[in-house]
Design a protein that fits this description.
13 helices; 383 residues; mainly alpha; 4% strand; 5 strands
């Protein structure tokens, strides 16, 4: 069966409901729901970690964790709006007469959600009003823009932590962040779906933020390469693998690669030569569905990687339990001094050295009279 020069699937003859049953938009909805499920797992893990350590963290770190968790709300709202629009358009598809359904399928094979299928919407017995479609599109764009802004703020936070006293770094970061906020806000106001020139400039600014932050983190890592190298070569192999993964996640290399793919699409919008034009279709599909989840998953992934790396070290070497086994100095409570110091002229006991701290063998309950070296190094600042 054909309509003009466009072949129609056999299932179309069964009725109008088959027109939109397995369309591209349904696949995008399923893809976004899958990413949202992964994001939910990461947020649950991050929330549990925050609840365990909330009393030991500063208010700035707790505020930062709160901002990271707040990225989950726009992602949930985005998925809710997409599901609502898909349901309404599916309801319209069910009411299309067979002839109208064939015409709609022949006109365009793209998703029924969006301005590209307005001709199909007008064929329905019931329709979503143009104002409702416009408001829904603006809401989707605004939610995506909000998550991008918050995620860029988290990215720049790494820069302020690693370079706290260099004013020109802060100035450049502030200019890039302000440009991103301005362009994203204007793009959301125009409701262009991040596909116009202003939104392309916003993606370019966000890409510059990620490249800028990644470069500065790499520069700090190079300055501390001796400490980082010692940490990566010490301890259990699982510790080394976790440290390497944490380093890559913390530097933002994977996240910057994602924004490089988005930049390819933005260069096409700006009329500039794009290095990978074939990826543009996939990038646009991701931008319309899973990007709002991915930009929120990155801060959560950092929190999970740091928590897992630190927990493995603590559980493997029982570092947290060492102070409770040590005797305090005379007249002092909880001095935290881990050096063996016995009063009353008792002979010195062999020491167990943990990192840069020395613990008496008697205090650790050791029956051995030899000195051991346990290679527990202090975690670098980037972890």
């Amino acid at each position: 069966m054909t309509t003009g020069d466009v072949p129609l699937p056999r299932s179309l003859a069964a009725g109008p409901a088959s027109v939109y049953a397995l369309n591209e938009q349904l696949r995008l909805v399923i893809l976004e729901a899958s990413f949202f499920g992964v994001y939910t797992f990461l947020v649950a893990f991050q929330l549990g970690s925050c609840l365990r350590t909330r009393t030991s963290l500063s208010w700035k770190r707790n505020l930062l964790n709160g901002i990271g968790l707040s990225l989950y709300a726009p992602a949930a709202a985005h998925l809710a709006v997409v599901l609502f629009l898909w349901y309404k358009n599916s309801e319209i598809a069910l009411t299309l007469p067979p002839d109208h359904a064939r015409r709609c399928q022949a006109e365009d094979h793209r998703p029924s959600l969006g301005p590209a299928m307005e001709s199909c919407h007008t064929l329905g017995l019931r329709n979503i009003s143009q104002s409702d479609q416009y408001d829904a599109g603006r809401a989707l764009t605004a939610l995506l823009a909000l998550n991008i802004i918050l995620s860029d703020a988290m990215v720049l936070w790494r820069v302020f932590v690693l370079w706290p006293r260099i004013w020109w770094i802060k100035c450049v970061s502030a200019v890039l962040f302000a440009a991103t906020i301005a362009t994203l806000s204007y793009g959301a106001y125009r409701n262009a779906g991040l596909d116009d020139t202003v939104s392309a400039c916003a993606i370019l600014c966000s890409w510059l933020i990620n490249v800028w932050a990644t470069t500065l983190v790499a520069a700090r890592a190079w300055k501390r390469r001796a400490d980082i190298g010692g940490h990566l070569h010490a301890g259990h192999p699982a510790t080394r693998v976790g440290a390497v993964l944490s380093l890559f996640v913390w530097c933002g290399m994977f996240y910057t690669l994602l924004w490089t793919l988005l930049l390819d699409d933005a260069l096409g919008v700006l009329g500039l030569p794009a290095p990978a034009a074939r990826l543009r279709t996939a990038v646009r599909a991701a931008k319309a569905s899973v990007l709002v989840d991915v930009v929120g998953m990155y801060p959560a992934t950092i929190a999970v990687a740091v928590d897992l790396s630190g927990r493995f070290v603590r559980e493997t070497f029982c570092v947290d339990d060492v102070p409770s086994l040590l005797p305090a100095r005379t007249g002092q409570r909880g001095s935290g001094d881990l050096r063996a110091a016995h009063s009353g002229g008792a002979p010195a006991q062999p020491a167990l050295r943990v990192g840069a701290r020395t613990v008496s063998a008697a205090a650790m309950g050791s029956v051995s009279q030899r000195t051991e070296e346990v290679g527990v190094k202090k975690r670098p600042r980037w972890l």
